Amino acid sequence: MTRRQLHAAGEAWPLATPFRIARGVRTQADVVVAELTQDGVTGRGEGAPIPRYGDSVESCVADLFALREAVEAGMTRQELLTALKPGAARNALDCAMWDLEARLAGTTVPALLGVAPLPPQVTAMTVGLAAPEAMGEAARKLADFPLVKVKVNADDPAAQIAAVRAAAPDATLIVDANESWDMALLQKMQPALAAAGIALFEQPLPAAQDEQLRGFKPSVPICADESCHTAADLDRLDGLYQAVNIKLDKTGGLTAALELLEAARARGLTVMNGCMICTSLSIAPAFHIADRADFADLDGPTWLARDRDGGVVLTRGTLSVPAGALWGG
After folding, report:
1. Other CB atoms within 10 A of residue 110 CB
2. Are 11 and 260 in contact (CB under 8 A)?
3. What is the H or E stretch that residue 235 is in?
4. Mean pLDDT for all residues in the chain
5. Phi, psi (deg, nearest 5) at residue 116
6. DSSP H helical ranges for 67-108
7. In this predicted model, what pLDDT tens digit does every residue of 8-42 receive, in sequence order?
8. What radius of gyration do the chain's Cα atoms show?
9. d(CA 295, CA 200)
10. Catalytically annotated residue among 85, 141, 149, 151
11. Does residue 1 carry a pLDDT above 60?
12. How far apart are CA 47 and CA 57, in angstroms?
């Protein structure tokens, strides 16, 4: 066995249209890619740094190169869990380790996990934050898709949700406030959320205000996104949320995401599998969570002007599994 070699670099992928949420607008996907090479075989993984948590492409690349000696000497995925904090850098490296392991063994990641080849997944398609009329127009283009996610803020969420529901009357709707509401607005909006038939409501309050949900009885299940990163968060969130959104860029890779999935299921929580704006190299490992989740929100690559070769193909709200040549064997 030859010594492994680690390479890491940032990449920018332009979006086809701007992506707007309560915290701002994006025009490109900024990602970090980790590559591990051994015996002429290369495994890759991608992470999308989340500025909300102080990450950037530059900081993630620096974090990866700080571990270079240990990684090249044979660091395992379990050792990585304690060597690097949860986040995009660890996600990229963890997924590269999975990819390399499968390729060196001449098999696939599903085979390593003891599961069948993964099926296509219904994904939420996102209606970005805009004026209610514009959101309704965007939703009309998704009217025959099965699952739609609605980004809202605190300005006029009732009108935003109503416009999307009117334009997509048959779709299952998820609403995401990205921490932009307060408790008063959450209480006020309960009848509107119920009337619109919302299936799941993501992160209404800032994560630091989670405890305000103690004893609250929502009309729609509330999902922790920014509040839940790894399985270690679940004790703190007990009794506050009915669901968790598992994103590999929050857990710090597939290894920790699988741990969070098992822990969430053990507590009877609904599971959503989400993503950042990214390429299909990020989405490929996420399919292993989506396959066991109640909801999948993996439309990140569909916002790109151009995706990687072998990436997902979207057909009326259903994503194909990325090619094994891209990730996972």
Report:
1. 19
2. no
3. helix 234-237
4. 97
5. -70, 160
6. 68-72, 77-83, 88-104
7. 999 999 999 888 887 778 899 999 999 999 999 99
8. 19
9. 9
10. 151
11. no
12. 9
Q: Where are the beta strands (DSSP E) in 4-137?
A: 5-21, 24-38, 41-47, 121-122, 125-127
Q: Which of 247, 175, 201 is nearest to 21 (CA)?
A: 175
- 209: helix, coil or strand? helix
Catalytic residue among 85, 149, 217, 247: 247
What stretch of H or E contains 315?
strand 314-315
CATH number listed for the domain at residues 121-319: 3.20.20.120
Phi, psi of 243 (to 5 degrees): -155, 160
**Per the structure block, which two tokens stand in for 185?**
């607005």
Strand order in the sheet with 5-21: 5-21, 24-38, 41-47
φ, ψ at 290 (rounded to 5°): -60, -35
Q: Does the annotation count 141 as an active-site position?
A: no
Residue type, 181: W
How is residue 93 written in tokens?
A: 């490296």
CA distance 162 to 174: 13
Residue appearing with tokens 């296509």? 120
User: Is there a catalytic annotation at residue 149?
Assistant: no
Residues 224-263: tens digit of each pLDDT: 999 999 999 999 999 999 999 999 999 999 999 999 999 9
Which sequence spans correspond to the domains of the chain?
Answer: 5-113, 121-319
State the DSSP H helix or E strand holding residue 272, giving kind and residue range, or none if neither.
strand 270-273
Pairing of strands 222-224, 243-246: parallel
Question: What six digits make up the tokens of 86?
Answer: 């949860």
Task: Give every CB contact of residue 232 below 8 A, 6+ residues apart in sequence.
Answer: none
Hey, which CATH number is domain 5-113, 3.40.50.2300, 3.30.390.10, 3.40.1550.10, 3.30.200.20?
Answer: 3.30.390.10
Q: Which helix (H) or strand (E) element contains residue 270?
A: strand 270-273
